[in-house]
Amino acid sequence: MTSSKSGSMAFDTQKMLLSDNSPFSVQEAYKTLRTNVSFSLPGSDCKSIGIVSATRGDGKSTIALNLAISLAQINKKIILVDCDMRLPTIASKLGCQSTPGLSNYLSGDCKDIPIVHVDDKGIDIIPSGNIPPDSTTLIASLQMRQLVDSLKKEYEYIVFDFPPINIVSDAVMMSDVVDGYLLVIRHNRSEYQMVAETIRQMRFADAKVLGFVYNGKNNDKKYYRYKGSYYRYGYYYRKKS
User: What is the dihedral sign for C-alpha 106, 49, 234, 69?
Assistant: First the structure.
């Protein structure tokens, strides 16, 4: 039997996942994010996007997952790769097994790419796998580059959920194969100095910053007028308590 606490957490996780039942403001926010990402990366080739944050708790994994779902809603073939191999959350948010996964494939423990299809969301994922002793070495490996090259032949979009940049350097080590990064900033949580240091590291690695996602702001009092009607609108993921 599931305890009330764990059951509540599972319910909250499901509410945070983008769906047709999500509030209008949330759906519109992700449509806007999806459109801006598409225009920021023109061309017909596969587009690879890294989702990063300065520190933990800013909501980057939820943003990565919902961006992938939003792209799938317009019939894009997409795969989400959980590169946060130290503290992964993608598989648990979707209720999938996390192993075998990315770490197992990169270390040679499994020969086939461990792709999991999430039918109700219309996306494929590569879960994180077992926690490795040194994920940075795996991310920087030739096998990782070969994996990305292989995925680019099969998918229209690749979304990478990276660990926070100010904790480990995994994300910036992929700047040579990632087309652009989205930096997630959380309202009343992300500190200016930490964000500035993240941007400095990304610039040093010559990483292309597509933009910022301002997350966690309750913006009930601001509206966008369209054809006489009012709709909540914004570049944020709104989390209801």
Answer: negative
Bridge partners (DSSP) of residue 81 are 126, 160
How far apart are the two ends of the chain, measured CA to CA in Å?
Answer: 25
Give pLDDT tens digits for 24-40.
999 999 999 999 999 99
The answer to whether 241 touches 213, Cβ cutoff 8 Å, is: no
Contact 102, 126 (CB under 8 A): yes
Check whether 96 has a pLDDT greater than 50.
Answer: yes
Q: Quote the mean pLDDT of the chain.
A: 85
Phi, psi of 105 (to 5 degrees): -70, -45
Write the burial class of residue 110 (CB in 10 Å: 0-12 exposed, 13-18 middle, 19+ buried). Answer: middle
Mean pLDDT confidence for 77-87: 96
pTM value is 0.84
Strands 123-126 and 116-118 turn out to be antiparallel
